């Protein structure tokens, strides 16, 4: 038997990783303090929330820098060999060496168990393969966990421990920074934006709650812990979307979000269950990944698990066809939209894919280059949602559909095997999309809380220059204009699809590539439309717009700076001016290489031609939209739509427009047909069955028995039972008085029948025995 | 066996203390209600102290002993049928005993200013005390006859509670409750007797019977029939579809205290009986029955949820939700695996805490609004914000939100269905798994819809300035805080209960695995 050696690293993981649990714990404490003590002690909730998120952010930075350092040290030392999975990781930490040896020396049982746990020979081979031909080496994820509960007896007797703990690797560290950064800025922004709200305390409490649950999820070391965090962020989303629950529209939107996500959660539950059994009864993420890489789990099982998990991704990360809740979620306060429904929570699905990437990579056969479900869904989403963004008049809805579209991009990237491109886009998108949402909030702050671009906006660049410039920069980043952040990440995705000549990568994914190009054009188009309608032309509202205060504009400026520079973290090496500075840093920090719990992924080669092509498409599309509105403006400064345009001339164009306005009729399907059907006819039919059929049977048995009993009582059995019942009736004297008068007769008869039946059946049994 | 006070008298003292209290109350005139409330509370607190001593002592034995029956007492009782007074506890019964010990005093605290019409605190509280003895007795009995007696003792007080202190249709509901349960009990008794004779007519002791069934050669057909009788008895109590129709009526008509006890503890007598008696004694028959139990369980999950969606009355809705939730418990049991059975016991306690809480809140709403008609309510978060929040919390707990207790009854049950015990059809249970998972969506649907219609929005004109609508009062806080705290505690530290039940459950699962081969 081949007992796999535990991963050995020449470099010890920094001790700071043992304390990473403090980050979610700080935010959880902040939640409790705000909710229960803020009002009582008369402390303004933001004096609790802001310091909390500030310290969480600093800690997250420390963790991220430690990871970068550790990562570099391990890489220099030549990486790790052997298995990364939880139990063996503990061996390098020194606690369980004896146990591992005992396992090796022990009888067959222990061997078999160890082999099952680690995939045995196959794993060793796979690891061997990783060892060669790579220049880059990564450390194993650093796991610290404790037993949450046990099942099926102690581990040594064949039971399993279900653990809770923290897992730090590049992906987790990156998310830690993103979540705490955006959350921190949103906290500051909210102190102005939400000031004077009817539920200010409650708002801040749930900002903390959300941040805590998101961080809890990000740091999950086991899939069941991930599930807990996954649902907790869902609840915070529910609560914050429905923040103004007095209006039914808002609570409807909140319910829609929660219920749609529950639908996806079916997939999450089942997917995790499949992996639990397939990986040998463990929820441990590293162990599951290792089992997937090593071939211990069959491809079909991984495919099944991957498909189920995809539904969860579709609901949480707003992929077609489960995306419909996300635009409605804009009913919540704008900073919440920025934090939860743009930058962080909605990327949980993308995060899940990354967390269990080997499962998807192997299950969907991504190295083969054949189109898979993930890439397909991502491609459909980025174009489908991009089209919808063109017909929205509500600035937040445009941004919401844009978010859906960009999430589609990330899923597409992961689907074509471009892991780092997907994660990098997650990173840059969080920054510039948060900037856009907060900018939209700033605009609406100025326009009397309206989000209607056509009615209440226009020409705002004159009134609010800071908001205008940050918004334009972030839009440029989103549209992929070089050298802004989005350009680099989007370019990497298009490269990763491998269809453009000379890019290579995991395979040739034509359909995702073409859809990605189309979406790139759409993005520039609808963002130009937004900018024009909001900031150019004449002001169409009836207020006196003004620039927002510093607590609103400062976060905008910080994010805009990020939108300019964040992309440089992962530029190709050897660019003019930059040289090797920052070159491919992000990939070396985030993408694991040469470890047993991550597949070896091929990378595409950047192409200048592709970058130029994609950029020109974007610029052209922006130019067309710009010209359209400029012409319109020339005719009538207040016009926002062409009259007598294409839509009035061609019925096909009209039909297409209607299809978009009706959001592909998906909402009708879900709300009216499915939900309405279950709530209405189906539930009513079931209840009718309950009342008339089931209860009907019971009642007729009751009535029949009463008649029978009356007969029995009258002619056969007056004496004996009578006495017994009277005795019990007397026991309840007083209180049971009325009751006895009315009903004891019926009971008596029923009891008679029961005991008669019992005696009869007992007789049957005696004969049978 | 070591002889300490706790080992010799602990269980019996705990079980019969409430009866002593009830007897004491009988001697005192009912005019002074305060005295009766004090005696009732004192008795249950004392019972709780004795029980708490027992529970903590058991906890301190350490996990290797949690699978054993401890503090056993075995005295002769009815010699002529070999029925003995045998009581003991293990890791399966301890959580349920603890739940009972907690809920009953809280119900009495709640009763302090919530005695339902037509009043008469003395009789009302006495019934609760009698119930207390019956419930505790059922959880400690190790002899079938003794179990049966305690099981039946529970019946009458609940019958009177519904029939006298209930709502408008209390008589119909009380009769229905009584007859249904009695019907099941009769079949259960038949099964007990058949088992007794089939094993040679020597003992009613559960452990001995299990061993006798193992060693003797009772035909599997007979075993399946005997199991069927128990199935009826316990299944009606749970209640399982299609024997559930007594439950919505009983719950809707019962006074708040009755509903809480019914939901929190009484229903668990059925599921507990399945685990402790039916499965433990007849593992082979259990394997044969498992597909049918599982089927009725998942039908119950979907059916109960659909029933909820059709309700217009809040209390009736919560009652129907019990059908769905107990479906998860039964699904866990039907898998006959360690994870499934652990989940089932966890689910019982979680359901007890959560649904008990929901009935408390519903009762308090009824008291303030004098109606539970959902469409007339609304805006609870404005009229009584704290109560609205508590309702929201309970709704989240009830829909199985991870991080709260309900989740640990649901998720592992669904998980266990993926790979049921050997000898049970895997493909069938995978279908059950998917259906049960769909049930979680429906649960979120009806519960959030309830929350939206009652708590969100603005209060209707009818109740806008109603001075009777006050926020949570002191006795309510006292009664509710322990439940709320435990819902959170068990959600985040599930090991508190899982580790306790795992020992005995694993032993049981091993027996089932042997039977399934």
Describe this structure in words.
The complex is a heterodimer of chains A (769) and B (517). Chain A has 769 residues and is mainly α. Chain A folds into four domains: 1-363, no CATH class; 367-570 and 607-654, no CATH class; 662-714; 717-769. Helix content of chain A is 68%, strand content 2%. Chain A is built from 31 helices and two strands. In chain A, strand 1 and strand 2 form a beta hairpin. In chain A, helix 19 (419-446) packs antiparallel against helix 22 and helix 22 (485-496) crosses helix 26. Chain B is mainly α and 517 residues long. Chain B has one domain (5-516). Chain B has helices spanning 5-27, 33-60, 93-111, 121-140, 144-153, 155-165, 170-198, 206-215, 220-237, 246-253, 256-281, 283-309, 314-335, 338-369, 380-383, 385-398, 405-418, 426-454, 461-464, 474-492, 495-516; strands at residues 70-78, 83-89. In chain B, strand 1 and strand 2 (83-89) form a beta hairpin. The mean pLDDT of chain B is 89. Classes of the chains: A mainly alpha (769), B mainly alpha (517). Chains A and B meet through strand 1, helix 9, helix 10, helix 29 and helix 31 of A and helix 6, helix 7, helix 9, helix 12 and helix 14 of B.
């Amino acid at each position: 038997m081949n007992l796999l050696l535990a991963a050995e690293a020449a470099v010890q993981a920094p001790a700071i990783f043992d304390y990473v649990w403090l980050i979610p714990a700080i935010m959880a404490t902040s939640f409790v303090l705000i909710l229960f003590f803020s009002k009582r002690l008369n402390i303004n909730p933001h004096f609790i929330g802001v310091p909390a998120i500030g310290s969480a952010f600093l800690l997250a930075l420390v963790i991220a820098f430690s990871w970068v350092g550790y990562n570099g040290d391990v890489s220099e030392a030549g990486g790790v060999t052997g298995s990364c999975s939880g139990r063996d990781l503990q061996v390098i930490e020194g606690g369980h060496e004896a146990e591992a040896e005992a396992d090796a020396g022990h009888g067959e049982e222990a061997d078999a168990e160890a082999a099952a746990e680690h995939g045995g020979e196959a794993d060793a081979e796979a690891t061997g393969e990783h060892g060669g031909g790579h220049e880059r080496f990564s450390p194993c994820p650093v796991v610290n966990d404790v037993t949450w509960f046990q099942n099926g007896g102690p581990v040594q007797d064949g039971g399993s421990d279900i653990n809770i703990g923290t897992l730090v690797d590049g992906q987790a560290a990156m998310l830690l920074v993103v979540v705490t950064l955006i959350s921190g800025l949103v906290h500051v922004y909210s102190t102005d934006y939400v000031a004077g709200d009817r539920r200010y305390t409650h708002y801040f409490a749930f900002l903390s709650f959300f941040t805590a649950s998101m961080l809890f999820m990000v740091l999950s070391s086991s899939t069941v812990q991930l599930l807990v965090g996954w649902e907790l962020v869902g609840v915070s989303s529910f609560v914050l979307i429905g923040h103004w629950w007095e209006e039914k529209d808002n609570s409807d939107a909140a319910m829609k979000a929660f219920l749609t996500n529950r639908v996806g959660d079916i997939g999450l539950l089942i997917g995790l269950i499949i992996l639990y059994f397939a990986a040998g009864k463990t929820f441990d993420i590293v162990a599951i990944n290792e089992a997937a890489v090593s071939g211990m789990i069959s491809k079909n099982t991984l495919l099944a698990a991957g498909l189920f998990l995809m539904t969860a991704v579709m609901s949480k990360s707003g992929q077609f066809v489960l995306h419909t809740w996300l635009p409605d979620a804009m009913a919540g306060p704008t900073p919440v939209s920025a934090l939860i429904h743009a930058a962080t929570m909605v990327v949980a699905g993308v995060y899940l894919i990354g967390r269990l990437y080997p499962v998807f990579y192997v299950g969907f056969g991504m190295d083969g280059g054949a189109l898979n479900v993930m890439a397909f869904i991502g491609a459909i989403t980025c174009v489908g949602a991009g089209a919808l963004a063109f017909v929205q008049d509500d600035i937040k809805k445009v941004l919401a559909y844009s978010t859906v579209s960009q999430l589609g991009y990330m899923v597409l990237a992961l689907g074509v095997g471009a892991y780092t491109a997907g994660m990098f886009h997650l990173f840059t998108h969080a920054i510039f999309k948060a900037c856009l949402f907060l900018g939209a909030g700033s605009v609406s702050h100025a326009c009397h809380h309206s989000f209607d671009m056509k009615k209440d906006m226009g020409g705002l660049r004159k009134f609010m220059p800071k908001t205008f410039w940050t918004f334009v920069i972030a839009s440029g980043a989103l549209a992929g204009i070089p050298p802004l952040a989005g350009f680099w990440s989007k370019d990497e995705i298009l490269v990763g699809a491998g269809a453009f000549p000379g890019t290579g990568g995991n395979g040739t994914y034509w359909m995702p590539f073409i859809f990605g190009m189309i979406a790139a054009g759409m993005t520039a188009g609808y963002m130009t439309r937004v900018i024009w309608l909001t900031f150019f032309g004449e002001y169409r509202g009836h207020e006196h717009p003004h620039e927002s205060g510093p607590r609103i504009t400062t976060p905008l400026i910080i994010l805009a700076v990020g939108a300019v520079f964040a992309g440089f973290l992962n530029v190709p090496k050897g660019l003019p001016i930059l040289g090797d500075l920052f070159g491919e840093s992000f990939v070396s920090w985030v993408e694991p290489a040469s470890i047993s719990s991550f597949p070896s992924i091929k990378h595409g080669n950047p192409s200048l031609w592709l970058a130029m092509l994609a950029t020109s498409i974007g610029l052209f599309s922006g130019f067309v939209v710009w010209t359209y509105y400029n012409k319109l403006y020339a005719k009538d400064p207040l016009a926002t739509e062409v009259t007598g345009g294409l839509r009035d001339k061609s019925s096909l164009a009209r039909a297409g427009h209607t299809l978009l306005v009706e959001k592909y009729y998906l909402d009708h399907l879900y709300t009216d047909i499915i939900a309405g059907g279950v709530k209405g006819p189906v539930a009513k039919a079931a209840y009718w069955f309950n009342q008339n059929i089931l209860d009907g049977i019971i009642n007729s048995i009751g009535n029949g028995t009463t008649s029978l009993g009356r007969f029995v009582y009258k002619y056969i059995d007056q004496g004996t039972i009578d006495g017994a019942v009277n005795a019990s009736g007397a026991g309840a004297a007083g209180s049971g008085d009325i009751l006895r008068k009315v009903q004891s007769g019926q009971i008596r008869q029923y009891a008679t029948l029961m005991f008669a039946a019992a005696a009869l059946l007992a007789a049957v049994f005696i004969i049978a025995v | 066996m070591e002889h300490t006070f706790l080992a010799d008298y602990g269980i019996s003292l705990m079980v019969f203390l409430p009866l002593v209290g009830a007897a004491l109350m009988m001697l005192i005139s009912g005019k002074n209600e305060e005295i009766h409330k004090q005696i009732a509370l004192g008795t249950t607190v004392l019972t709780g102290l004795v029980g708490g001593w027992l529970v903590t002592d058991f906890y301190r034995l350490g996990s290797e002993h949690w699978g054993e029956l401890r503090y056993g007492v075995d005295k002769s009782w009815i010699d002529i049928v070999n029925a003995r007074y045998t009581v003991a506890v293990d890791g399966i019964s301890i959580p349920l005993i603890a739940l009972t010990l907690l809920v009953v005093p809280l119900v009495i605290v709640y009763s302090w200013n919530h005695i339902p019409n037509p009043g008469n605190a003395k009789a009302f509280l006495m019934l609760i005390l009698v119930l207390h003895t019956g419930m505790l007795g059922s959880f400690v009995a190790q002899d079938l006859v003794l179990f049966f007696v305690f099981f039946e003792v529970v019946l009458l007080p609940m019958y009177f509670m519904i029939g006298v202190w209930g709502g408008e249709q209390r008589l119909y509901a009380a009769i229905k409750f009584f007859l249904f349960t009695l019907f099941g009990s009769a079949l259960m008794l038949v099964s007990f007797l058949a088992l007794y004779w089939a094993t040679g007519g020597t003992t009613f002791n559960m452990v001995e019977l299990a061993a006798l069934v193992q060693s003797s050669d009772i035909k599997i057909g007979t075993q399946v029939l005997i199991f069927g009788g128990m199935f009826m008895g316990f299944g009606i109590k749970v209640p399982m579809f299609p024997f559930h129709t007594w439950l919505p009526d009983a719950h809707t008509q019962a006074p708040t205290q009755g509903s809480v006890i019914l939901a929190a503890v009484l229903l668990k007598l059925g599921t507990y009986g399945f685990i402790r008696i039916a499965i433990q004694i007849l593992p082979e028959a259990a394997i044969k029955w498992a597909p049918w139990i599982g089927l009725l369980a998942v039908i119950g999950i979907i059916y109960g949820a659909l029933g909820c969606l059709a309700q217009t009355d809040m209390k009736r809705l919560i009652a129907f939700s019990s059908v769905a939730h107990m479906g998860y418990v039964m699904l866990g049991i039907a898998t006959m695996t360690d994870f499934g059975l652990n989940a089932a016991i966890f689910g019982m306690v979680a359901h007890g805490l959560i649904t008990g809480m929901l009935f408390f809140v519903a009762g308090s709403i009824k008291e303030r609004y004098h109606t539970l008609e959902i469409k007339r309510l609304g805006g609870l978060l404005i009229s009584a914000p704290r109560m609205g929040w508590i309702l929201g919390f309970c709704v989240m707990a009830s829909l199985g939100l991870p991080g709260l207790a309900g989740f640990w009854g649901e998720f592992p049950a669904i998980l266990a269905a993926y790979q049921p015990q050997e000898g049970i059809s895997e493909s069938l249970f995978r279908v059950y798994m998917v259906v049960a998972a769909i049930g979680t969506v429906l649960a979120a649907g009806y519960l959030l819809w309830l929350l939206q219609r009652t708590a969100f929005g603005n209060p209707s004109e009818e109740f806008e300035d109603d001075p009777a609508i006050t926020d949570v009062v002191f006795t309510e806080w006292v009664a509710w805080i322990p439940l709320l705290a435990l819902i959170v505690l068990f959600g985040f530290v599930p090991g508190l209960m899982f580790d306790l039940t795992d020992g005995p459950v694993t032993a049981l699962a091993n027996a089932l695995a042997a039977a399934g081969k």
